[in-house]
From TrEMBL:
Its EC number is 1.16.1.9. PROSITE patterns: FAD_FR. Its main location: membrane. It is a multi-pass membrane protein. It comes from Hyaloscypha variabilis (strain UAMH 11265 / GT02V1 / F) (Meliniomyces variabilis). One of its GO terms (biological process) is intracellular iron ion homeostasis. This is ferric-chelate reductase (NADPH).
Length: 580
């Protein structure tokens, strides 16, 4: 049954790998045919049309999430696709434990107990494979480790299920014969089993988000120690013929750690890089942007990266014993790595406080190589389907989510291939946030103008929405005394999308609007003019991310995408705030 269990798991990984290969073939076909076919992103062969039809069905099913409300709180359930994957895994686990057994037959209780124990132990390698930063499953399927983290957590939680069955059927038998006390007190094998189960329970409970987020650094250290303790307890509990299921995950874990440590050593040792600034290869400058955000800049970085990737940063002097992931807000042609970091607590707050103290005191004639603090880097990580293969693109970002969408948009414009139209939407609370990416957005407008002069048919709309009621009120006629709060709320609800005064920082072709964007209308209008498959890229709070997915499902269903109507597919890449 262990082999049968892994046959199903391996088949699922194989299907995902084939899908990844097919996506790569589609990308290659679109890019190579772009010069001769104006609608290169439209599937034409039977194979690609069949793939587009299946993708449309899977997306409409998998993207949707049921919205719920409790009093004034609004939230979404997990997407249907993720839920289906998890439920399928739970069903596979239960069937593997009980197949060909009758749980009501007392004579088979021990058989069920042994079987479920063996099924539990063979799941451990999968838990580890899904956790590594240098992820084998991610390499095969084209899915970054950060998008497999939820599956790692839930597979680990599901591991509790066969363990409980394993323990429950044995305990049930011992209670029937009044043998439980003796087993717990005198049987070393039973004692080791209870210890292993207790450690696993602790691993699951301590990884729940409210507990994990109390101190992520402490969580990581205790999680690794607890996991190694769990492996040891299982090793001394199970028979020797099942020790392979302990050595395999331990080997995977050591391999991931060695590869990652070697790469970190290479990246950060200044002697190994031509532009190294000393013993440590990278130095970072910290600049306060406003009352709660910091720009961290690493000039002349010793790495290559792609738009949409992130890195882990550690600055021992400013924030000791902490390493956090941040999205890279620049592209390689900038010659520097930039991050826009929101100050919350812990390391991000210490970054901001340091920036406030250090930035004004920096001498104006200091070169970037001689200022700032030594910083350790790890990465880059993350993968995304190449966006230049899509006919039309919609970028939706909330606040610092623009650190993800802005580089992707700039990369498309600088390396134009198939795309005809880009709609870039950025939602900010205050108009002052526009300064974070003002020069980059202006450059995009100039680059598109250059493409037009070269005869390339690409169009772009850049719209920035300001949601603060204070900003909205200031953009209207003067508001008097005791009616100001009511008028602010009225402004928020009734003057959405009215143009605000310019900032003086942006090209006049970039619109700054009051209120919130109508995501459904933006996606629908883009889909109506798309000549081939389009993509929606969203990064921001979970509510924005999931409402965008649901909007895509609705538009796809309305237009009968790839169901004979001629409407083209809509792919969604979603990045939610937070790190698991």
């Amino acid at each position: 049954m262990q082999q049968i269990f892994w046959a199903f798991v391996g088949t699922a990984i194989g299907v995902a790998t084939l899908a990844n290969v097919l996506n790569r073939l589609i990308y290659h076909q679109r890019i190579t045919s772009r010069s001769s076919i104006p609608d290169a992103a439209r599937p034409k062969s039977f194979l690609f049309r069949a793939q587009a039809w299946m993708s449309a069905i899977v997306r409409e099913y998998g993207y949707y999430s049921l919205p719920l409300s409790f009093r004034k709180t609004h939230f979404f359930l997990a997407p249907v696709g993720s839920t289906t994957v998890l439920l399928s895994y739970v069903v596979l686990t239960l069937v593997s434990c009980f197949y060909a057994f009758d749980p009501s037959n007392v004579l088979q209780w021990e058989d069920v107990g042994y079987r479920s124990g063996f099924i539990a132990i063979c799941q451990i390698p999968l838990v580890v494979l899904l956790a590594g930063k240098r992820n084998i499953i991610g390499f095969l399927t084209g899915v970054g480790y950060e998008r497999l983290t939820w599956l790692h957590r839930w597979v680990a939680r599901t591991l509790l299920l066969p363990v409980v069955i394993h323990m429950g059927f044995f305990v049930r038998e011992w209670v029937m014969y009044d043998y439980l006390t003796i087993k717990i007190q005198q049987d070393p094998l039973t004692i080791k089993g209870f210890i292993a189960g207790g450690i696993l329970l602790w691993l699951v409970v301590s990884s729940v988000a409210p507990i994990r987020n109390l101190s992520y650094e402490i969580f990581v250290v205790q999680h690794i120690i607890s996991w190694l303790g769990f492996l040891f307890a299982v090793y001394i509990h199970v028979p020797a013929e099942n020790h392979i299921w302990i050595w395999l995950p331990l080997g995977f874990w050591v391999f991931d750690r060695v590869v990652r440590a070697s790469y970190i050593f290479y990246l950060n040792l200044g002697l190994l890089h031509k532009n190294g600034t000393g013993l440590i290869a990278c130095r970072a400058n910290f600049e306060p942007l406003d009352e709660g955000h910091t720009r961290v800049t690493i000039p002349n970085p010793p790495i290559n990266w792609k738009a949409g990737q992130h890195m882990f940063l550690a600055c021992p002097v400013v924030a000791p014993l902490s390493s956090h992931p941040f999205t890279i807000a620049s592209i390689p042609s900038d010659g520097k790595i930039e991050f826009v970091v929101r100050a919350k607590k812990g390391a991000t707050k210490r970054f901001f406080k340091y920036a406030e103290k250090a930035y004004p005191s920096l001498p104006s004639n200091s070169s970037p190589q001689k200022i700032g603090r030594s910083i350790l880097i790890d990465g880059p990580y993350a993968t995304i389907r190449p966006l230049r293969q899509f006919d039309s693109l919609v970028f939706l970002a909330g606040s610092t989510g623009a650190t993800f969408t802005t580089p992707l948009m700039r990369d498309i414009v600088q390396q134009w291939k198939v795309t005809r139209y880009i709609n870039f939407v950025w939602v900010v609370k205050r108009k002052s946030a526009v300064s974070w990416f003002a020069s980059q957005l202006d450059q995009v407008i100039r680059d598109v103008e250059t493409l037009h002069n070269q005869g390339q048919g690409i169009a772009i709309d850049i719209n920035i929405y300001v949601t603060s009621t204070d900003e909205l009120a200031s953009s209207q006629a003067s508001i008097n005394g005791d009616t100001i709060e009511a008028e602010k709320e009225f402004a928020l609800q009734n003057i959405s999308h009215s143009r605000l005064n310019g900032t003086g920082l942006l090209d006049s072709r970039i619109s700054i609007l009051a209120g919130r964007p109508q995501v459904m209308n933006i996606i629908r209008s883009t889909a109506e003019t798309a000549l081939g498959e389009m993509a929606v890229v969203v990064c921001g709070p979970p509510g924005l991310v999931q409402s965008t997915r649901n909007a895509v499902v609705r538009v796809s269903n309305e237009k009968a995408v790839h169901k004979g109507s001629g409407a083209q597919g809509i792919y969604v890449h979603a990045e939610a705030f937070g790190y698991a």
